[in-house]
Automatic annotation (TrEMBL):
It comes from the Bacteria. This is Putative RNA-binding Zn ribbon-like protein. Residues 156-197 form the Zinc finger CGNR domain.
Length: 211
């Protein structure tokens, strides 16, 4: 990453906007299809379980939106997969591919951006009058769009472990976090160790005199 760009990046601060991006990542990690910890991952089929996971996940970041309901499970999974798709583009720093996807999602629901009417005046992204899926989708997309415009998407990472596409925000000072979890870090250490052992064994076999 260019040094000049690093200086322009807005560090995640725990603002409402940042909490929405964290929520989008947490939601996709639980409900988007793909790979996780070395195995194929699909969201639970049970609608009640999906809604429960989404509520439990999103409540950690924002509590005022209406709850996800089991009958919204299919929409919820579609939203999670679409957000995951965009977040993967952003993690790969493929902004030109991500932008039309974000704009399409923003266009599907009217913007809910508004300022609070009493101090401290803050920008709100959530529309409390719509069902949870629409409310979270428009809010997460608006927050992601804001991250793109402030170069904060540089903090979004995809796990570097084999067969894992779960996402995380790397806000460490060094910016060198590579894995979504301790499990994936451990798996990669084991894999690297086995690879070194195999290379050493192959080299040893190559050096052995033929009889
Ligand atoms: Zn991982």
């Amino acid at each position: 990453m260019a040094t000049a760009l690093k200086g322009m990046m807005t560090r995640p601060s725990g603002s409402h906007r940042d909490q929405l991006v964290f929520a989008a990542i947490a939601l996709t990690n639980r409900l988007a299809d793909g790979w996780s910890f070395g195995a194929r991952y699909t969201a639970p089929e049970d609608p009640a379980e999906c809604a429960s996971i989404a509520n439990e996940t999103c409540e950690r970041f924002y509590r005022k939106q209406t709850a996800f309901l089991p009958e919204q499970a299919d929409e919820l999974k579609v939203m999670a997969n679409r957000l995951h798709d965009v977040l993967l583009d952003l993690a790969l720093d493929d902004i030109p591919t991500a932008i039309p996807k974000v704009n399409t999602m923003l266009a599907e629901h009217p913007s809910a951006l508004h300022l609070s009417e009493k101090p401290p005046y803050s920008l709100h992204y959530q529309d409390h009058s719509v069902p949870a899926v629409q409310g979270w989708q428009v809010a997460c997309c608006a927050a992601l769009a804001s991250w793109v415009s402030s170069n904060s998407t540089q903090y979004i990472r995809c796990c570097a472990a084999l067969r894992c596409d779960r996402l995380f925000v790397d806000d460490t000072r060094s910016g060198t976090k590579r894995f979504c979890s301790i499990q994936c870090h451990g798996r990669e250490n084991v894999r690297a160790y086995r690879l070194r052992q195999a290379v050493a064994a192959a080299e040893k076999a190559h050096r052995m005199p033929r009889l």
